Amino acid sequence: MTRPNHSTLPALLLCSIAACAADAQPPIPEGSGHIAALADDTTHPFFSSVSVADHDTVTLSALGDLWPSCWSDDDAVYYTNGDGNGFGAVLGEMVVSRVLGRPDDALDPLRGTAVAAGTEIGPAWNLGYTRKPTGMLCANGELFLAVQDLKALAFTDAPAATIVRSIDKGRTWSWDTRAPMFSNYVFTTIMFADFGKNNEHAPDGYAYAYGLDDNWSATYSTRMPQSKLYLARVPLGNIQNRTSWEFWTGFGKEGETTWSADIEQRAPVLEDTQRVYQTPLDKNLNHQNMYTLSQGGVVYNPALKRYIYSTWTMYTFELYEAPQPWGPWKHFHTKDFGVFPWTEQAAGGYGTPIPSKFISADGQTMWMHSSVWEAGVIHYQYSLRKVQVTPYVESQADNIKSPDALSTSERSATPLVRVARSGHAELIMDGVLNRQSEESWNGERKTEDYWGYTWPRSLHVNEVRYTTGKPDRRGGWFKNLTVQVRRGPDWVPVTGLEITPAYSADSNVLGNKTYTLTFEEAETDGVRIYGEPGGSDAFTNISELSVHYQ
């Protein structure tokens, strides 16, 4: 997918946050529903289609944020939330909870119970800093939790972190009280790789942990660029022994992974210097020009044999994938919610782990956590939204000419949008003209905009019908308009493009009008209309988009 260039909590919530493997590939268990995708073919994206829900669809009455988790041998998912009371504990900085059930099972619904809270869970090492959970691991029937010091109220730096351990399913915790395991702002946001139930898909006897320096969030970091993600491993029996940790340093002469006990020798497994919201319409916007790496989570998807890193900025979700714990990591999706205020229909958030228990058997449906307090909505609780992916599978187009649209759910079309401000991207494929429209306004002076579809297989296409919304002086039209088709990872313009009636490419574009864009036949698994958005607010709008081969 093409990547966009892109208040405060009440006082009663203590220090609350506003936005607060070895060389062998893990084996695939029998009956996992593995998809035969082109795992490492760089000529194609690993996922042909990606969809992230515009808002949470599963919520429970559990106050708190962040929600790192792990799936234990008793089939429960153990969570730790920041600031709140979780599932009924005393209000505090952290609460550990035990959750049973699944988000999509009416016969086994989600329900939770708090098992520990407050200072009994973990330490804070520095005055003026608060405890925050960043990652959890369930292995050998035990629980491990990474706890960091985070600057109270400001959330701007994290100088220390340690790992705490529970051998009684979260009721009591222990740690070395003499000093933090990690200090001096180095590797202080720790996210354990989630290898499924009781660490069952781990490739060896190590725990793997990803780490960020300085701070938990690129949005709030003021000390240094938040652009590098590091990886460490430690034997499962020595997780709390700092001297047993090794850090990934790269590859040897034979292509083998190399590790060092010296943290100064480490190399990033992912470095992303891309910034989002570099040119907001409001020059005084509180959050802008943000790096993309923050505290979220890394989960192993066994059916797809893929690692997924889910992270966030103040206004976006960012997704990366890799075939091995050390990579190569590739960005594959941005979900852009726009600047505040948000609505119940379109709202992002922060702290974005994907629990391994809630990954479907075929790997194509996942559930992501996120929390939000400000932005016009309050979802400061246990909340999940659906993430759906379709792996790329090589295919040849075999559809014949027909008057029927290819852009329907029956044809497995997935809407592809730069931004859907109201959270209703599905409007572009409902087959109803001029009833409702969607727009791409997001508070950013965008230089590109698009509306389109992706499919899980290749199709013949030669026509797109674009029905506009109602443009105004602020925007709602393309300054230039073309059609692009996907060729592997790239989007390329079609040839022989003709637009009927003529598209004026300015504020005089006809509202609620269907423009037919015909072009030479192309074979592709993705089509979009593309161009620079017009108007003072740089956005486009749309009522319907249909794709044809006729």
List keywords for this structure.
mainly beta, 8-stranded antiparallel beta sheet, Tachylectin-2, Chain A, Jelly Rolls, 2 domains, 0% helix, 7-stranded antiparallel beta sheet, 30 strands, 550 residues, globular
Characterization of this structure:
The protein is mainly beta. It has two domains: 331 residues, Glycosyl hydrolase domain, family 43 (Tachylectin-2, Chain A, 5 Propeller); 140 residues, Jelly Rolls. It is built from no helices and 30 strands. The strands form six sheets. Strands 1, 2, 3, 4, 5, 6, 20 and 21 form an eight-stranded antiparallel β-sheet that branches. Strands 22, 24, 25, 26, 27, 28 and 30 form a seven-stranded antiparallel β-sheet that branches. Strands 10, 11, 12, 13, 14 and 15 form a six-stranded antiparallel β-sheet that branches. The N terminus is likely disordered.
Secondary-structure content class: mainly beta
The CATH architecture of the largest domain is: 5 Propeller
State the CATH topology of the largest domain. Tachylectin-2, Chain A
Q: Which blocks of ≥5 consecutive residues have pLDDT under 50?
A: 1-39
CATH superfamily of the largest domain: Glycosyl hydrolase domain, family 43
The CATH top-level class label of the largest domain: Mainly Beta
Gyration radius, to the nearest Å? 24 Å
Assign a percent range to the helix content: under 10%
Could you say which overall geometry the principal axes of the C-alpha atoms support? globular
User: How many strands?
Assistant: 30
Number of H/I helices = 0
Indicate the proportion of strand residues: 35-45%
Q: Quote the average pLDDT.
A: 91
Q: Give the terminus-to-terminus CA distance.
A: 27 Å
Structural domain count: 2
SSE pattern, N- to C-terminal: EEEEEEEEEEEEEEEEEEEEEEEEEEEEEE
- Give the oligomeric state of the chains in this entry, treating copies of one chain as homo and distinct chains as hetero: single chain
The largest β sheet comes out as:
8 strands, antiparallel
